[in-house]
Amino acid sequence: KAVEDSKCKTKVEVFVNRLDSVESVLPYEYSYFDFCTINDEPSPVENLGQVLFGERIRPSPYKFDFLKNDDCHLVCTKRFSSSDALRQKMLKRLMKGMVLNYQQHWIIDNMPVTLCYRNT
Fold it and tell me: What global pTM score does this model have?
């Protein structure tokens, strides 16, 4: 019954923060690695502590709905052409970020998302 209530929000907003790596001391903005972004949504208001610690919270293109099975959803498509110097630069930057194990920081409902995994 609660799902049928029009006041109950079913959309889950996901925000992104900076990317960092245990293998590098440099944090980067989410947009630095040419990930999919959305520009038509305003960024959430950051408090003074977030600004002082270098957090730059931005809206993300990732969308979730409660009680909706969605195994796969295309967010955007990026093309990298060998004839386009800027796109090649962005591809090299992305590949270097993967080699250095840069990780995204997601925020859902004002709480950081945590991923636990085992190294084998």
Answer: 0.74
Domain boundaries, the chain: 11-112
Give pLDDT tens digits for 31-70: 898 888 887 777 777 777 777 777 788 899 988 888 888 8
116: Cα within 13 Å, side-chain hemisphere: 0
Query: 87, 81 in Cβ contact below 8 A?
Result: yes
10 Å Cβ neighbour count for 3?
Answer: 8
Q: Of 25, 48, 24, whose CA–CA distance to 98 is shortest?
A: 24
d(CA 118, CA 120): 6
- Tokens of residue 116, six digits: 């636990």
